[in-house]
Amino acid sequence: MSTELKGKRVLVTGGTRGIGRAIVLAFAAAGATVHTCGRTDGEAAAALRSELAEFGGEHTVHAADVADPARCRALVKATTAVLGGIDVLVNNAGVVSHRTLDELDGDEWSRVIDTNLRGTFEVTKAALPSMGEGGAIVNISSAVASVGMVARTHYTASKAAIYGFTRSLCKEAGPRGIRANVVAPGIIETDQAIGLTGEVRKRYEALAALGRLGTPEDVADVVLFLSGNAARFVSGQTIVVDGGI
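-> structure tokens emitted (245 positions)
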């Protein structure tokens, strides 16, 4: 096992389920100390705490809704109070819904934008003063941001904005030795994929050059790469993890 992430202080938002959970566990397995959050302190959070305890260390699972700016700042404050700083920030928390534009109202638009985009802004702004030379920020977007999807104008807009946010962020943070990149997952085996019918699943699998859906671990491995020294001269980039759709 690589030791380059051992001892790193990591904050991952939205880490109790799906891709976020895989990212948290991958960092813990690599020897990092991870603080993460879920929207509520429910069964998923409790299960993650149990798994993290097996790695030892001072990993923490908070309850924080990143759509609330005050909760974002409180999350970062609690993390830095324990860790003394942040070496890696992964902005993964997000929500999605399926509504065509004529069904979409302002409240739902704001809910998705506030969580997916403003949450990323608020956590990053709060965390940057605690990051230093060699720091890494990885923002999780979506492959759909570059192609679009019916009934996802709000979600696609939020995820496409992450590209622009990160391109400018890398130029602001770069002089301090902090890198910022995007990972854009394709169709991944998460809770959302469970509801796919057999026919739809086969169609999605056929779209990928590798002939399968991705796993959360496929995405987590790319996040760890971008967080480590092997990616020391990679910044402002988007890596699409979709199996070659």
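The CA atoms of residues 25 and 67 lie 24 Å apart.
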